[in-house]
Queue: 2 jobs
Job 1
Amino acid sequence: MATILVMDDDPEVRELCAMVLGGEGFDVVATPDARSGIRAARAEPPDLILLDWMMPEVDGLDALRELKSLRETAAIPVVMLTALDGLADVAIATMGGAESYVTKPFEPAELASLVRRFIAATES
């Protein structure tokens, strides 16, 4: 069973992701900030990370850069999950190493489908 790590400071987003992805059969680990998320990813590398951009202290873009620089987390696919929806934002996240980009609010079924595609691609 694949593990999805959700890093988001919004408890409702974490809960929604856990409900939707848990219902799809994924193990979901959710953290309220980037620091605890990076620690969780290093301790037990997940199969995919959903990462909010706008978080206090360490933002998602800095977390993305750190995740991609660490040996134990560099290969983990990261999907930015954020309200920032400008073309420049998408480009910055992609150049920083994000494999995909989902804007909030999102359709739960679309998020589940995206996660299933990423997990299927990594399992094959």
Note: The chain has one domain: 3-123.
Job 2
Amino acid sequence: MPALLDVRGLQVDFEADTGPVRVLNGMDLTVEAGQSVGVVGESGSGKTVLLRTILGLLQDQWRVGAGAVTFDGQDLRAKTETQMNAIRGAEIALTTPEPRKHLNPLLRIGEQIVNVLRAHKRIDRRAARDMAVHLLRTVGIPAPEERVFSYPHEMSGGMCQRVIIAMALAHSPRLLLADEPTAGLDVTTSRQILDLMSSLIRDSGSSLLLVSRDLGVVAHYCQTIAVVYAGQVVETAPVAVFFENPAHPYSRRLLRVATAAHETTPLAGGPAVRERTAGLDHMCSFAPRCPIALPTCRQAPVPLLGNIGPNRSARCIRATEILSGAVNPWP
């Protein structure tokens, strides 16, 4: 059976004043039906661009090059805007960070949910309003009959994020793309939001693609992890296997930093975004920062995301050496 979502060799450039910047550089990612996949990586690695490319939401200064995006056997890149509008929200939904920025400050919460419901359902406004109340109650907002008349500024950040989740799940989509759903929220509220989202996804049988910079969040709420660096997935693995023994030097560094509060040594070579230009297509993107890089890593073509074990892969020619303990990128 084909995967629900399959991204293969996806390339996306940003047209900057100084020339094109390669943001996604051969992105490969798979999400099976009913699966929860966590995408992790430092800021600027291309995680959000990936989600917006899947839904065809990039603006004019972006250029999608080679690669394929397939959803349930359908080529999303071949869809017209009208066809994509029928898929967005109904089949694939998106939650965004900083929910206040994505809620209309001039419309009441209930009206915004009603508009989302009527975009894909042929129902009258009264029925849509009743459904809006039900959705707010489902996501744990107290007194939903009253809250439908509230404006976004009258609600807390956590409540606004619950509204965003309610709108995203209004049509029981088959795939939820969650982009940093708890950004800017306190720890307690973040946990409540993630528990809620995970429960709703599990109950509906939907799939989840969760973008986060927090390895702990992915460890708790996802089955599979995909590590992204400089616009490429450099490692995928079942969560438990990954945390026991990462296979890519960058993955090991991420895990080391996440589990050592005293760790202050930065990665050598500067931020990944500086390396991501169209001229780096023919070498390993992590080679300038990798402590175990070989001359081949800087000269050979970009390594493919190769199979290194059951349900796991890595984009590194030394992955098997790392797993065996023959080399240690960060002694």
Note: The CA atoms of residues 17 and 61 lie 10 Å apart.
